[in-house]
Amino acid sequence: MHAAEPKVPTLTLPADTGTPGVNAPVRRTVTVLGSGDVLIHPPLWQQAHRDAAAAGRTGYDFGPMYASVAPDTQAADLAVCEMETPLAPPQGPFVGWPDFSAPPQVLTALKRAGYDSCTTASNHSLDQGYAGLRRTLDELDAAGLKHTGSARSEREASRPLISTLPNGARVGQLAYSFNFNGHEPAAGQAWEANLIDVPAILAAAHRLKRAGADIVVLSLHWGTEYDHLATQQQLDEAHQLLASRDVDLILGDHAHVVQPAQRIHGKWVFYCMGNQISRHADPIAEGREGIMPEVTFTEVAPHRFRATAAVAITTWMQDTPALRLLDVHRVLASATATAQQRAEATAARRAITHYLDAYGALAAGLRVR
């Protein structure tokens, strides 16, 4: 975990017991950061190979790709990645779309950048069958990254993922996908990867709270690709899920573009965070845009937290001269940014803000950075 200064002024809240008018000690805060699809296309691992060679090493180095956003992920109390693709053995072979098998060396960069966990429920979860699923989770374990969304056994599938932060707050995580691109789990092994089912999600979230989670973060792989608006099904599911006391935040992926954020029952849903790192064969500008939502939770009663701030950190996938994931704010604040970088970053932030605000997120308190 990564200790960080609170992102908003701390709150002094009335004591739950004791003399009326006497303030209680300042309650704990927790910052949770999410991010879009880690979608490893061939140009990305080719760039990682060039970056390793430039440093005089063999293999693949994804670290330079993440350098711009690492201060963001390192500052969060809990940083969550979305590992969309199965991972190959370190020496390959590596495969791109449609049935991915990506270099596991990306995990080294994710860990060093400050990520604590990765979700593994996506439409590509079963691209390489059970063997690929198992290898992916083994490699996440070896990298020191927690995970949820797929499992190697029924027992693992039923085991809750709860992270205890340095301040003692406990954050539970869940992850589900709308489908697996026509791939199916092995017979009798439906537990391999999680499919979206609202009653099942609510039951799992309730179990997490009963197991001691103070906050439950739900990651959903859903929606329509390249559509900047949520589907009616996304809207309906978000309202059902956030009506529960057991679900505190929804982080969405899959559409490959940024979709709106919305505050429902005082909680946030980010319908799609866009891609994080990707390089489609025929890239479009919108597919290079992304956000890393950072939501601050404040303890309002013992072990009861509510969202008190939300910031959407805007990102842009630079194509040239090298593939780089850029923090837009950091680019615009840099004295060394080129004119092209500034122009691209400015356009990306303007577009992302427009997409995020389609359902009134700015008026509801979202800040875009």
Architecture in CATH?
A: 4-Layer Sandwich
Contiguous helical run count: 10
The CATH class, by name, is Alpha Beta
Mean pLDDT: 93
Q: Describe it for me?
A:
The protein is α/β, with parallel strands linked by helices and 369 residues long. It has one domain: Purple Acid Phosphatase, chain A, domain 2, CATH 3.60.21. It is 27% helix and 24% strand. The chain contains ten helices and 16 strands. It has helices at residues 42-54, 63-66, 70-75, 106-113, 129-143, 154-158, 198-210, 232-242, 328-333, 339-356, and strands at 29-33, 37-38, 78-83, 117-119, 146-148, 161-164, 170-177, 215-221, 249-253, 261-264, 267-270, 275-277, 289-301, 304-318, 324-327, 366-368. The strands form two sheets. Strands 1, 2, 3, 4, 5, 12, 13, 14, 15 and 16 form a ten-stranded mixed sheet that branches. The protein has a six-stranded mixed sheet with strand order 6-7-8-9-11-10, with helices on one face. It starts with 28 loop residues before the first strand and ends with a strand.
Give a brief outline of the structure.
This protein has 369 residues and is of the alpha/beta class. Helices cover 27% and strands 24% of the residues. α5 (129-143) links the parallel β4 and β5.
